[in-house]
Design brief:
The complex is a heterodimer.
Chain A: E1 2-5, E2 8-11, H1 21-28, E3 47-50, E4 53-56, E5 69-71, H2 85-92, H3 102-115, H4 121-128, H5 138-155
Parallel strand pairs in A: 1-5
Antiparallel strand pairs in A: 1-2, 3-4, 3-5
Chain B: H1 9-16, E1 31-33, E2 69-72, E3 75-78, E4 81-86, H2 95-107, E5 114-118, H3 123-126, H4 136-163, E6 170-173, E7 176-179, E8 184-187, H5 188-196, H6 226-230, E9 246-252, E10 259-263, H7 265-269, E11 274-280, E12 292-297, H8 300-309, E13 312-315, H9 324-334, E14 341-345, H10 348-353, E15 357-365, E16 377-383, E17 386-391, H11 396-407, E18 414-418, H12 432-444, E19 448-451, H13 454-459, E20 467-475, E21 481-492, E22 517-525, H14 538-555, H15 560-568, H16 581-595, E23 605-614, E24 617-627, E25 632-643, H17 650-670, E26 675-676, E27 679-680, E28 698-703, H18 721-733, E29 739-740, E30 748-749
Parallel strand pairs in B: 1-22, 4-5, 9-19, 15-29, 17-18, 21-22, 25-28, 25-30
Antiparallel strand pairs in B: 2-3, 3-4, 6-7, 7-8, 9-12, 10-13, 11-12, 14-22, 15-20, 16-17, 16-19, 20-21, 23-24, 24-25, 26-27
Amino acid sequence: MNIKINGESRDLGDLDLRTPLLWVLRDELNLVGAKYGCGISQCGACTILVNSVAVKSCSYPVGSVGDADVTTIEGLADSDGELTAVQKAWIDLDVAQCGYCQSGQVMAAEALLRAIPNPSDDQIDQAMASNICRCGTYIRIRDAVKSAANELATDVGGGA
Amino acid sequence: MTSLNYDGIAEIVDTITSSREELNNASTPLRIVKLDRRQFLKMTGAVGGGLMLSFSAPKAIANKDTGAFQPNGYVKIDSSGIVLYAKNPEIGQGVKTSLPMIVAEELDAAWEDVTVEQSRIDQAAYGMQFAGGSTAIPMNWTALRRAGATARSMLVKAAANRWNVSVDALTTESSEVIHGSSGRRATYLELANEAAALDVPNGDSVPLKDPSDFHILGRRVTGVDNEALVRGEPLFGIDQTVPGMKYAVCQKCAAIGGTVKSANLEDIKKMSGIVDAFVLEGNDNAGELLPGVAVVADSTWAALEAKRALNIEWEETGASTDSWSDAINEAERLRHEPGPRVVDIGNVDTAFANSVKQASGFYRYAFASHAQLEPQNCTASFSDGKLELWAPTQTPGAAIMSAARIVGIQPTNVTLHQKRCGGGFGRRLYNDFVCEAAAIAKHVGVPVKLQWTREDDMAYDLYRAGGFHQMHGSVDENGKITGWRNRFITFTNDGNRPVSGGGISPGVFPGGLLENIRVEQTALEWKNRCAAWRAPGSNVFAFVVGSFLHELAHIAGRDHLEVLLEVLGEPRQLGPRGMHTGRAAGVVELAAEKAGWGRELEEGRGMGVAFYYSHAGHIAEVADVSVSEDKKVKVHKVTVAADVGPIVNLSGAENQVQGSVVDGISTMFDLAVSFENGRVQQTNFDKYSMMRMPSAPEIDVHFVRSDYPPTGLGEPAFPPLAPAVYNAIFAATGQRARTMPISEEGFTLA
């Protein structure tokens, strides 16, 4: 089977279609940015985008991907390696502690800002509530999402 | 029967942590109580010999052959750049950034010129390498300054030789040596070759900077791995791959101490993608290798599918039958009986008899899991009598010793690559997962990555022990506290001494501060493993003593802040490792002032204050909460004042404090692990609900600029949070909660 990941079609051979996408990414494609945390869609460390929507890849069978576009954290930067506003905000605000959840947090934030470019505080809280940070960096995550939203708004001329 | 041996790790933690709280457990009187109706086989207490704690001195290493200037293990400069080595495991406490900042400061390098790499594990070169006890900064501060200063002095000497001028005529700035009078400049990179040819001076002889000249320390510096993190690059243990690697899982007995009687190994081996399935014998040391069935497969998913298909018959004679409900019942009985006295100063009985008012309260806290977000994993390769490990461990040195023993080779034949850890919180002080990976790799003869599931992680943790305190205290006619009794009921794994983090000491707050004080200690026998969990001991004692102090202030009809400051008293140092009451009062007053203590609040809203000294850190916190009719608690704001000496990385320090507050709220509201018939009842995060973003309050952090030596921040901001919030809930509602998690008393987080 083939699936589209980060803009490329990848041949997966004859894989068990029930295999969670997380393990396909990590074991078969060497894309290890998405992390295993709980395996039951509770922590969000495995969050990736399927057609720009945040999905918990630990519970998403590879057979469900079909011809959708899968984006992992490795696929966010452009072809020159330029980071997105979300990624930059995460570095600028020194969000991470252990950093293990942050790949999932960044992907959840990307999904939020693609759907709602100028989210309210409440919308940020609700969107990011799917992701646990065991180290407790929520305040910085919240600030980084806001900072990225502002950056994006400036880039496109005030969000017009 | 299984013994517990942590290779001295528990001792390291006990010795280096906190105030005096963890000390002398072995020598304090202790009554051991077997739980009712239970047959306990005694675990023999063979705790590993004490490792010497030493401050690591930078050691000169031969550098003349490589061309690179490498005067010690921390600095390497050649024409391609400046590399600084971070010696300790990174578990989220920020040491991969903060420790090299100290070297860079004295090296007088521009931080932007520096690349940081994880050092090799080499305790001869680096001294002890571990993450625990908030010790990285205090233990390495001087050595790292000398390491940087030594390198700088050699670069200056190299420039002096090149220009034929005196070293006194030279200065350094931003990775350059400057001859002011001639305007000549040379970069460190240009000088590296010449510096490498010089003898390394004694580190004690090189001058250190005056702190007023610091330009890196105290700044906000973003973590050195942040870019790699947001690019999804492999950093963590779980991200490791090696050529020819297979994927391993291991199923252990739900009741610890159980062994494998039989398993459907032949059926499992026939499954698709399975390389091998076999019984793994334990090594009679529950701190190293637990028995189970190992499955090795071509992929993680194939291994997990096989794990689900396992059908194992367990031999549970002698396995854990621990029951939390039995423990609660037993503690309910024991709280009425005096226990052996850990400390008995003055005369509490007389103080109680002569008092005007008395209060008592029975406090209880549950067991808790570390729940570090990266489940345990380790990659191991064994061939030709040599073992190679890629491990996310907090104690790489101990991991090497244990793993060598497991596979039957000398420690010198083990190489361990330190991997970034997805959280630690104390769980990775213990290397059972490393031992398991080593044993499996040796058995199958190919490299394996062992992966624990979250369910494994919850079931085979070394938990923060639960505990019980029957508190009793008195006040006189002036509302002054006259007597304090803390009757503590804890747990023992080895039948000799309390579990690590579950032993109380004479110094426990308000030890040394009151005239009449008595602390008693009794331990219940317990088989499930318990050990250090962020701020061991302090993480629960602070809740009890910080709440009960408020109870006494309340019966005295006095303001809690005023009573707290009165208890702290005149500024003085309480013993060599104890708190300084002046620093304590300083942070209490600062937190109160910043929070607006004493101002009028609306109905249903309240403020609470707490102070705790642990891990050499003086920290006060004020919580501002609202509680609704249906006991929903909104934590609006937590104000923190901390005195930990000079700050190394302001961004990292603030992050640790904010994270400790969030962790504290998360833990006090909802986190509990319970046991029945030896089995852990909470199997995954759906039954162990950590706090999420909508509940995160505003957190206002203030650091006192003091000239005391710098100390760590991974732990000390955690303990004061719970009592501050419990006290705020009392202020808001008049209801005194004495159970942690507080959800067991019906209070939930809004």
